[in-house]
Amino acid sequence: MGATDHTTARRDVMVIFGITGDLARVKTFHSLYRLEERGLLDCPIVGVAFEDWTKDQLAQRARESITAQEGDLDEAVFARLMDRMSYAHGDFGKPETYDGVKQAMGGAEHPLFYLEVPPNLFATVVKGVAGAGLATNARFVIEKPFGHDLASAKALAAELHSVVDESQLLRVDHYLGKVGLEEIPFLRFANTLLAPVWNRDYIDHVEISMTEAFGVDDRGHFYDPVGALRDVVVNHLMQVVVAVAMEAPDYGDRSSLGRRRTELLREIVPVDPARYVRGQYRGYRDVDGVAADSTTETFAALELRIDNPRWEGVPFFIRTGKKLRATETEVRVVFREAPSLGFGLRGEAPPTNELVVRLGPTFGVRVALAAQRVDAATPELAELDVGFAATPGESPTPYEVLFEAALAGGGMRFASQDTIDAEWAVIQRLLDAPPPVQPYEPGTWGPSAADALIDGRGGWPEPWLDG
Ligand SMILES: NC(=O)C1=CN([C@@H]2O[C@H](COP(=O)(O)OP(=O)(O)OC[C@H]3O[C@@H](n4cnc5c(N)ncnc54)[C@H](OP(=O)(O)O)[C@@H]3O)[C@@H](O)[C@H]2O)C=CC1
Ligand SMILES: O=C1O[C@H](COP(=O)(O)O)[C@@H](O)[C@H](O)[C@H]1O
């Protein structure tokens, strides 16, 4: 069996570095609980962190975390989860910590190491694991961020590659675990109604909008050095662009899919700072952890172009921000205008078709067709909606999907280093020469300069909201 066979085998232990941290509290325990509930866990789980916790303390934290997300918990499911969990502690910088980890792993041969630790410790932990002789058949799931620009992303990769192979690294972008995201290529390629028109001949422009009504809240220390562009555009929203625009992979394996993703990202023209708008909501500078004179953007809007035969001339508009009017993530594909029609409608262009994929908070697809109702004077848009998950908890959460994929040995849900480099390359000019940040009022759609960006295409639409 070669190295690749070992690293794609089903995992026989999951070791979670950083189990006492915030991400574990808000996502990890809950996702593990839901996997346990669905019968999808079959290996021991070892949590590791600095604090010298007892198993009871671990159970207490797990219980609080799960109830905070789920409401009541099923005691039988919780007991099964805790039976498979243990805890080891120590400083990640010290070799003896990994001796403790090895002991807790028992005789497991195909470990999954999940690193939800501060980014400056990614390489330390991977090296510590390798130093204890535990890396040979291992896979490492690594949390974001992967650097803060192109150069630092490459430096991090070089450090990791000095101890482990790229095939062993699974980089988290939780959008790759969103159920709706993978539906986009499926919709495009599996429907003969859509596949032939999915190109510059029929599509006028694409809008990708991720608006959040909440603010930075208690995440000021994390957010202020990062900002909207690095927090969600260079990763999550770039993956949405990929899903909308990439060519179909030849095969269903990690490398074919990874190749298509990277090809598309490399075809995106580095974004021009003149087509980038930065905003900051009023009140952001009062958030704990935010500098009093911060110029970090809490809103970003930009236009990108893809230099390939399918997308030549089609702008992709991206908009995201905090403290906006509503929380909604969607992709809106706006088709070209139809010609004016002879049968009583000459001079009256019918409204343009749209296909909207809603990615959050729930998931659905909307097709807007021009329709001439008997009782209406002019054509109108008739909206055909399909809700695939009507409530946020109905489908698996992204972390359930990612953990399940990582435990099964698959890598398709994770980002490769080529992808990460290509994503940073798209926005590097914006990091080098950011335009000034513009204030906006909470509860609006952001600074008015963002409207000017898309003026020639009818402005930003009202997103598809509930009710
Ligand atoms: N929080 C979130 O919502 C999100 C976080 N992320 C990413 O996840 C990662 C973790 O974030 P988050 O959970 O917020 O971080 P926290 O600071 O809350 O948690 C860090 C964890 O690492 C442990 N740790 C830190 N230093 C050491 C050390 N020297 N030795 C042993 N253990 C150590 C801490 O242990 P102890 O508590 O015992 O000291 C704790 O368990 C980061 O990369 C972040 O970017 C990604 C998306 C969202
Ligand atoms: O990674 C992050 O994503 C969330 C948005 O995720 P979603 O699944 O709710 O769309 C964002 O709010 C956060 O700032 C960012 O760090």
From TrEMBL:
Binding site for NADP(+): 91-92, 144
Signal peptide: none
Coiled coil feature spans: none
Swiss-Prot/TrEMBL keywords: Carbohydrate metabolism, Glucose metabolism, NADP, Oxidoreductase
Domain Glucose-6-phosphate dehydrogenase NAD-binding per the UniProt entry, residue ranges: 15-178
GO BP, sorted A to Z: glucose metabolic process; pentose-phosphate shunt, oxidative branch
Role noted for this protein: Catalyzes the oxidation of glucose 6-phosphate to 6-phosphogluconolactone.
Family: Belongs to the glucose-6-phosphate dehydrogenase family.
HAMAP family named among the record's database cross-references: G6PD
Protein name: Glucose-6-phosphate 1-dehydrogenase
Gene name as annotated: zwf
